[in-house]
Amino acid sequence: MAGDEPLLSQGDEADAIAELFNIGMGEPAAALSSMLGEEVRLSVPSFAVSTRLAVARDLAPAIVPPVCAVRGAFAGPFTGEAMLLFPEQGTLALVGRLVPVDPAAEGPGEMEQDALTEIGNIILNGCLASLSNLIGGEIAGAVPGYGTGDPEAVIGAAEDPVLAVRIDMALAAGDAQGHALFLLDIASLDAFREAIRRTLANLGS
Predict the structure, then answer these.
(1) DSSP reduced 3-state for 136
(2) What is the average per-residue pLDDT within 61-82?
(3) Is the residue at 4 inside a domain?
(4) Which residues contact 169 (CB under 8 A, 6 or more apart)?
(5) Which residues of 113-132 are buried (b: 16+ CB within 10 A; e: fewer)?
(6) pTM here?
């Protein structure tokens, strides 16, 4: 980073980051709502320079382990990892809208895992595609993979800084609540900020 410029500026730049992810999540959430036949509600995006360990610990009170995770790396003008996280019971409630789920099941089986992975692909790569259009630069997401464990196991326990963007998700019925996370590598933060500035300039022109 050059000079004494802060990692993240306040004001217009911060507002633009929140708005970019708000727009980016809107279309895939609408697509998922249509698929499920039920509204998918999103929180206002929150973000901070943090660490994977701190993000996992902050999230722990809001999500009962074991956590079901769909995650995949992305690369482009900036790099990082995108994740969709739901507790096991929330996962069963969510995918139960799409596939038959045994009421006695204690955790997702292979079919439920595949369904959550497909939902993760819609949400995460859909958001990255929208962001690509907004910033005018391609962000390529890897095919997401499924994993499970406690928050530190699925998010990571590294203490290197990342820019963490979090969006809470919930079905209208209230029986499935989860989180979308985008963890941007701090080494590519300058490129991310430059993309934000270009987007602001384009919106203002």
Answers:
(1) coil
(2) 95
(3) no
(4) 29, 40, 41, 42, 43, 123, 177, 178, 179, 180
(5) bebbbebbbbbbbbbbbbbb
(6) 0.91
